Protein backbone atom coordinates (compact mmCIF):
# COMPACT_ATOMS: atom_id res chain seq x y z
CA UNK A 1 0.00 0.00 0.00
CA UNK A 2 1.30 3.43 -0.93
CA UNK A 3 -0.96 5.16 1.63
CA UNK A 4 -1.53 8.81 0.71
CA UNK A 5 0.36 10.14 -2.29
CA UNK A 6 0.64 13.76 -3.43
CA UNK A 7 1.89 15.32 -6.64
CA UNK A 8 3.88 17.38 -7.31
CA UNK A 9 6.40 17.43 -4.45
CA UNK A 10 7.60 20.94 -5.31
CA UNK A 11 6.18 23.74 -7.43
CA UNK A 12 7.09 27.35 -8.16
CA UNK A 13 4.37 29.57 -9.62
CA UNK A 14 4.20 33.17 -10.69
CA UNK A 15 1.44 35.36 -9.26
CA UNK A 16 -1.77 34.80 -11.21
CA UNK A 17 -0.89 31.34 -12.52
CA UNK A 18 -3.13 28.39 -11.77
CA UNK A 19 -2.36 24.84 -10.77
CA UNK A 20 -3.92 21.71 -9.32
CA UNK A 21 -2.45 19.69 -6.49
CA UNK A 22 -3.30 16.01 -6.72
CA UNK A 23 -3.92 13.61 -3.85
CA UNK A 24 -4.78 9.91 -3.90
CA UNK A 25 -5.21 7.26 -1.19
CA UNK A 26 -5.40 3.50 -1.52
CA UNK A 27 -6.75 2.71 1.96
CA UNK A 28 -10.46 2.84 1.01
CA UNK A 29 -10.98 5.80 3.34
CA UNK A 30 -14.18 7.81 3.16
CA UNK A 31 -12.93 11.19 4.34
CA UNK A 32 -10.17 13.29 2.82
CA UNK A 33 -8.68 16.65 3.77
CA UNK A 34 -6.47 19.43 2.48
CA UNK A 35 -4.33 21.40 4.95
CA UNK A 36 -1.74 24.12 4.64
CA UNK A 37 1.15 24.47 7.06
CA UNK A 38 2.92 27.78 7.59
CA UNK A 39 5.65 28.68 10.09
CA UNK A 40 4.09 29.75 13.38
CA UNK A 41 0.57 28.92 12.18
CA UNK A 42 0.42 25.16 12.50
CA UNK A 43 -1.83 23.03 10.30
CA UNK A 44 -4.95 24.77 9.02
CA UNK A 45 -7.79 23.01 7.25
CA UNK A 46 -8.58 24.32 3.77
CA UNK A 47 -11.30 21.89 2.62
CA UNK A 48 -12.71 18.59 3.71
CA UNK A 49 -14.64 15.83 1.94
CA UNK A 50 -16.65 13.31 3.96
CA UNK A 51 -17.46 11.17 0.93
CA UNK A 52 -17.37 11.13 -2.84
CA UNK A 53 -19.30 14.08 -4.21
CA UNK A 54 -19.36 16.11 -0.98
CA UNK A 55 -17.02 18.89 0.12
CA UNK A 56 -17.03 21.33 3.01
CA UNK A 57 -15.04 24.49 3.74
CA UNK A 58 -12.45 24.52 6.46
CA UNK A 59 -10.75 27.38 8.27
CA UNK A 60 -8.98 28.98 5.26
CA UNK A 61 -10.88 28.16 2.00
CA UNK A 62 -10.53 31.50 0.20
CA UNK A 63 -8.56 31.27 -3.05
CA UNK A 64 -8.96 27.50 -3.34
CA UNK A 65 -11.34 25.04 -4.96
CA UNK A 66 -11.52 21.28 -4.53
CA UNK A 67 -12.85 18.27 -6.38
CA UNK A 68 -13.55 14.85 -4.93
CA UNK A 69 -13.19 12.98 -8.19
CA UNK A 70 -13.92 9.55 -6.71
CA UNK A 71 -13.32 7.77 -3.43
CA UNK A 72 -9.55 7.66 -3.99
CA UNK A 73 -8.78 11.14 -5.30
CA UNK A 74 -9.18 14.65 -3.90
CA UNK A 75 -7.63 17.57 -5.78
CA UNK A 76 -6.96 21.15 -4.70
CA UNK A 77 -6.95 23.94 -7.28
CA UNK A 78 -5.48 27.41 -7.08
CA UNK A 79 -7.16 29.45 -9.81
CA UNK A 80 -5.00 32.58 -9.50
CA UNK A 81 -2.04 32.03 -7.21
CA UNK A 82 -0.96 34.75 -4.79
CA UNK A 83 2.25 35.06 -2.72
CA UNK A 84 0.13 34.51 0.42
CA UNK A 85 -0.48 30.96 -0.83
CA UNK A 86 3.19 30.09 -0.50
CA UNK A 87 3.04 27.17 1.91
CA UNK A 88 3.40 23.44 2.40
CA UNK A 89 0.20 21.63 1.48
CA UNK A 90 -0.75 18.30 3.02
CA UNK A 91 -3.48 15.91 2.02
CA UNK A 92 -4.86 13.46 4.59
CA UNK A 93 -7.44 10.70 4.73
CA UNK A 94 -9.25 8.76 7.43
CA UNK A 95 -11.67 5.90 7.89
CA UNK A 96 -12.73 6.62 11.47
CA UNK A 97 -12.20 10.37 11.71
CA UNK A 98 -9.75 9.96 14.56
CA UNK A 99 -6.69 8.56 12.77
CA UNK A 100 -5.73 10.77 9.87
CA UNK A 101 -3.01 9.58 7.51
CA UNK A 102 -1.01 12.32 5.85
CA UNK A 103 0.76 12.48 2.55
CA UNK A 104 4.36 13.71 2.16
CA UNK A 105 3.33 17.26 1.25
CA UNK A 106 3.70 19.68 -1.66
CA UNK A 107 6.00 22.67 -1.19
CA UNK A 108 4.56 25.58 -3.16
CA UNK A 109 6.26 28.92 -3.73
CA UNK A 110 4.41 31.77 -5.41
CA UNK A 111 6.61 34.62 -6.61
CA UNK B 1 -8.51 33.01 22.13
CA UNK B 2 -7.47 30.19 19.83
CA UNK B 3 -9.34 26.92 20.33
CA UNK B 4 -6.08 25.04 20.90
CA UNK B 5 -2.93 26.58 22.37
CA UNK B 6 0.48 24.94 22.23
CA UNK B 7 3.85 26.41 23.16
CA UNK B 8 5.98 26.25 19.98
CA UNK B 9 9.23 25.93 21.93
CA UNK B 10 11.81 25.08 20.77
CA UNK B 11 12.56 22.55 23.48
CA UNK B 12 16.04 21.06 23.78
CA UNK B 13 16.81 18.19 26.19
CA UNK B 14 19.66 15.72 26.75
CA UNK B 15 19.25 12.10 25.75
CA UNK B 16 17.49 10.09 28.44
CA UNK B 17 15.49 13.02 29.81
CA UNK B 18 11.75 12.91 30.46
CA UNK B 19 9.98 15.28 28.09
CA UNK B 20 6.64 16.91 28.84
CA UNK B 21 4.64 18.49 26.00
CA UNK B 22 1.36 20.26 26.67
CA UNK B 23 -1.68 21.84 25.08
CA UNK B 24 -4.64 23.75 26.44
CA UNK B 25 -7.99 24.15 24.76
CA UNK B 26 -11.15 26.19 25.13
CA UNK B 27 -13.87 24.03 23.51
CA UNK B 28 -15.35 21.73 26.15
CA UNK B 29 -17.07 19.69 23.41
CA UNK B 30 -13.78 18.12 22.27
CA UNK B 31 -13.91 14.36 22.89
CA UNK B 32 -10.85 12.94 21.14
CA UNK B 33 -7.32 14.11 21.79
CA UNK B 34 -4.44 13.17 19.51
CA UNK B 35 -0.70 13.60 19.35
CA UNK B 36 1.03 13.67 15.98
CA UNK B 37 4.77 13.58 15.35
CA UNK B 38 6.25 15.36 12.35
CA UNK B 39 9.82 14.88 11.25
CA UNK B 40 11.47 17.65 9.27
CA UNK B 41 10.10 17.92 5.72
CA UNK B 42 7.68 15.01 6.25
CA UNK B 43 3.94 14.67 6.83
CA UNK B 44 2.57 14.29 10.37
CA UNK B 45 2.02 10.77 11.68
CA UNK B 46 -0.34 9.79 14.47
CA UNK B 47 1.41 8.77 17.70
CA UNK B 48 -1.61 8.05 19.86
CA UNK B 49 -5.07 9.26 20.72
CA UNK B 50 -7.21 9.32 23.86
CA UNK B 51 -10.95 9.45 24.26
CA UNK B 52 -12.23 11.75 27.03
CA UNK B 53 -10.21 12.02 30.25
CA UNK B 54 -7.53 9.68 31.49
CA UNK B 55 -4.15 8.25 30.61
CA UNK B 56 -2.92 6.10 27.77
CA UNK B 57 0.51 4.52 27.55
CA UNK B 58 2.36 3.18 24.52
CA UNK B 59 5.94 2.19 25.14
CA UNK B 60 7.90 5.28 26.16
CA UNK B 61 4.97 7.57 25.40
CA UNK B 62 2.13 8.50 27.79
CA UNK B 63 -0.79 10.74 26.90
CA UNK B 64 -2.85 12.41 29.61
CA UNK B 65 -6.12 14.29 29.31
CA UNK B 66 -7.62 16.44 32.06
CA UNK B 67 -10.96 17.66 30.74
CA UNK B 68 -11.76 19.57 33.92
CA UNK B 69 -8.70 21.76 33.31
CA UNK B 70 -8.91 21.57 29.49
CA UNK B 71 -5.29 20.44 29.46
CA UNK B 72 -3.54 17.58 27.68
CA UNK B 73 -0.01 16.30 27.96
CA UNK B 74 2.37 13.96 26.21
CA UNK B 75 5.25 12.50 28.21
CA UNK B 76 8.26 10.87 26.58
CA UNK B 77 10.41 8.73 28.87
CA UNK B 78 14.06 7.97 28.18
CA UNK B 79 14.06 10.36 25.24
CA UNK B 80 16.21 9.45 22.24
CA UNK B 81 17.76 11.55 19.46
CA UNK B 82 15.30 9.83 17.11
CA UNK B 83 12.48 11.56 19.05
CA UNK B 84 13.67 14.90 17.68
CA UNK B 85 10.68 16.21 15.75
CA UNK B 86 7.78 18.61 15.98
CA UNK B 87 4.89 17.32 18.09
CA UNK B 88 1.40 18.54 17.30
CA UNK B 89 -1.62 18.11 19.51
CA UNK B 90 -5.01 17.83 17.82
CA UNK B 91 -8.57 17.59 19.03
CA UNK B 92 -11.91 16.55 17.64
CA UNK B 93 -15.58 16.79 18.44
CA UNK B 94 -17.51 14.04 16.65
CA UNK B 95 -20.94 15.35 17.63
CA UNK B 96 -22.97 16.22 14.57
CA UNK B 97 -20.82 13.96 12.42
CA UNK B 98 -17.98 16.45 12.08
CA UNK B 99 -14.63 14.76 11.48
CA UNK B 100 -12.51 17.87 11.54
CA UNK B 101 -9.38 18.06 13.65
CA UNK B 102 -8.20 21.28 15.29
CA UNK B 103 -4.43 21.36 15.60
CA UNK B 104 -2.08 23.17 17.92
CA UNK B 105 0.84 24.96 16.32
CA UNK B 106 3.31 22.25 17.32
CA UNK B 107 6.30 22.10 19.67
CA UNK B 108 9.73 21.52 18.15
CA UNK B 109 11.76 19.07 20.25
CA UNK B 110 15.46 18.36 19.95
CA UNK B 111 17.02 15.51 21.92
CA UNK B 112 20.78 15.91 22.13
CA UNK B 113 23.05 12.83 22.27
Structural account:
The complex is a heterodimer of chains A (111) and B (113). Chain A has 111 residues and is an all-beta fold. Helices cover 0% and strands 52% of the residues of chain A. Chain A has no helices and eleven strands. Chain A has strands at residues 4-7, 10-13, 19-25, 31-38, 42-49, 56-57, 64-68, 74-78, 87-94, 101-102, 106-110. In chain A, the strands form two sheets. In chain A, strands 2, 4, 5, 6, 9, 10 and 11 form a seven-stranded mixed sheet that branches. In chain A, strands 1-3-8-7 form a four-stranded antiparallel sheet, with no helix packed on it. In chain A, a hairpin with a 6-residue loop joins strand 5 (42-49) and strand 6. The radius of gyration of chain A is 13 Å and the shape is globular. Chain B is an all-beta fold and 113 residues long. In chain B, 0% of the residues lie in helices and 55% in strands. Chain B contains no helices and eleven strands. Chain B has strands spanning 4-6, 11-14, 19-25, 32-38, 45-51, 54-58, 61-66, 71-76, 85-92, 101-103, 107-112. In chain B, strands 2, 4, 5, 9, 10 and 11 form a six-stranded mixed sheet that branches. The model of chain B has no long low-confidence stretch (mean pLDDT 93). Chain A binds chain B through residues 4, 31, 33, 40-45, 48, 50, 58, 90, 92, 94, 97-105, and chain B through 6, 8, 32, 34, 41-46, 49, 88, 90, 92, 94, 97, 99-101, 103-106.
Largest interface: A-B, 24 and 23 residues
How many angstroms separate the termini of chain A?
36 Å
The counted number of beta strands of chain B is 11
Assembly type of the shown chains? heterodimer
Tell me about the largest β-sheet of chain B. 6 strands, mixed
Q: Helical amount among residues of chain B, as a percent range?
A: under 10%
Strand content of chain A: over 45%
What number is the mean pLDDT of chain B? 93
Major sheet description of chain A? 7 strands, mixed
Given the helix and strand composition of chain A, which structural class is it?
Answer: mainly beta
Integer-rounded radius of gyration of chain B = 14 Å
Structural class of chain B: mainly beta
H/E order of the elements of chain A?
A: EEEEEEEEEEE
Please provide the count of β strands of chain A.
11
**Low-confidence runs of at least 5 consecutive residues of chain B:** none
Gross geometry of chain B = globular
Number of helical regions of chain B: 0
Amino acid sequence: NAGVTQTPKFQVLKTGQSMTLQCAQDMNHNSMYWYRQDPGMGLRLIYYSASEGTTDKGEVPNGYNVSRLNKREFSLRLESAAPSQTSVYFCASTLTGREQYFGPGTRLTVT
Amino acid sequence: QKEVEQDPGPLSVPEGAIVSLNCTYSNSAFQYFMWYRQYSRKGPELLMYTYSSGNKEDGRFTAQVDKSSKYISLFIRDSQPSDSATYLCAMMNLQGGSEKLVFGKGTKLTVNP
